[in-house]
Design goal:
heterodimer; A: six-stranded mixed beta sheet; five-stranded antiparallel beta sheet; 0% helix; globular; B: mainly beta; 11 strands
Chain lengths: 112, 112
Amino acid sequence: QKEVEQNSGPLSVPEGAIASLNCTYSDRGSQSFFWYRQYSGKSPELIMFIYSNGDKEDGRFTAQLNKASQYVSLLIRDSQPSDSATYLCAVNSGGSNYKLTFGKGTLLTVNP
Amino acid sequence: NAGVTQTPKFQVLKTGQSMTLQCAQDMNHNSMYWYRQDPGMGLRLIYYSASEGTTDKGEVPNGYNVSRLNKREFSLRLESAAPSQTSVYFCASKEVDNSPLHFGNGTRLTVT
């Protein structure tokens, strides 16, 4: 069973700080990596995706991928209370680009 | 632009009853998915359809059947509901191999 691991949290940061969310995965063949945000009672919404080693930036969000270490992270700069949500890491698995395996999510709380 | 539409939004069933969850997407996506989400368990893949005319089991298929009716529609059927199937069910779709999933708003199912 291919696994995706995340710290469940809660991760609590003050407003304006950098929030760092981490994810490790077990399938060395994984090629596609996604971060979703899920507010309580809502469906997951895509924040970022990354396919290549290194950093990818989009506004206040930066995704970092290290395939050698099987590690993907999400940095949120200038965190806002509206960023308070559960963040889900998703990785394609089983040698298939069709199947995404999700981590259990990290609950982030940004305190005003 | 509706995206992925799921019906119903809420449902209460008695043990042993059957029902079908409906999902339709208007983005001309090839692949469609059914996930369930339970507290502490994250999102788990039930079934998916890589393309019209094909369906495959995911991580937790027991107790469910699916039908890919056409390119737009992918339904999930519970033949004899059990309390263990109480969950939030999400339908999702995506365009091509490495592209991200787009989720519907979910169906909250309670089996008593």
